[in-house]
Amino acid sequence: MAFNLGDVVTENAKTLSDAEKVKLEEQNKRMVSAFQALKLEQEARKHWDLFYKRNENRFFKDRHWTTREFSELLCGEESGGSDSSAAPHGGSPDHVENIAADGGKKLLEVGCGVGNLIFPLIEDGHRDYFIYACDLSPRAVELVQKHNLYDERYMKAFACDITTEQVFETLADGSLDIVTVIFVLSAIHPDKFLSTVANIYRLLKPGGVVLFRDYGLYDMAQLRFKPGHKIAENFYMRQDGTRSYYFAEQEVSELFRKAGFTVLVNSYIHRRTINPKENIDV
Length: 282
Hints:
Rossmann fold, 12 strands, globular
C-alpha cells in the first residue's frame, strides 16, 4: 500500500541528495541533438495527436481537486483559501447560457486534453460560467466534443496553438475572467513561454485571474530521465516525443510579471509518498 503524508507548501525547492545530483549530471553526458530538438518542436502537434490516438481518455485522471486547490473556480460561492499559484490581471446549462450571453463569467482552459478539468467542474455542479477549452491536438478536442457532458450551450472546445495568435480567431481581447494553465506550459518550448503568457494576459479582463500549476524543479519525474533525453536546462523529451519542462518558483513569478501580471500566490508543493512494500520513500 502506498500513501502520501500530505502536501507541504513552501518557497524552497527540493534539496538534492548527492545521489540525485549525480543523476542530474549523468543527464548531461548525452543531450538531444539540435536537429532532433528542432524536429520535436516542428512535430509537437503530431506527437500529442498520437498520444491521444493511443491513450484516448484513459491516461489522465479527472481533476476533482481543482476547486479545492483553486477557490477562484467556485465563482462567488463560499470558499476557503487556496494553496494555488495564481496570477491576476490588474446552476443549470440554460442558466449558464444566459450568463455567457449577458456578459457573465467566462473561463478558458488552455491545454484541455480530453476534458479532465472541465467535465469534473460540470459534474460537481459548478456551472456558473461559460467554458472555453482549447488544445494543440485536434484529436484531443474531438474527444472532448464526443463526451456525453459536452454541450455548446455552455462550452466551446477548439483546436489552437496558444503560443501563436491563433486563439484570437475564437476569443477577443479582454473577454475572459479566468484562465487555467495546468500542466500545460511545461509541454511548450521555453523560448515560447513569454509569448504564451502574453497571449493569456491579452485575453483576460482587468481583474481576471490565471490559475497555474505545473512541474516543479527537481520533481521525481525530472530525476528519472536517463542520458539522451535532455534537450536544454530543465527541459526534456519523453519516450513518446512529448516534452516536459521543470519550473523554479522564482522563474514562474518573473515570467508572469514580465507579461504584466501581479503575482498573488506562487509556491512549490512538496508531496512525500511512501510505499513500504516497494521500499519507496520519495
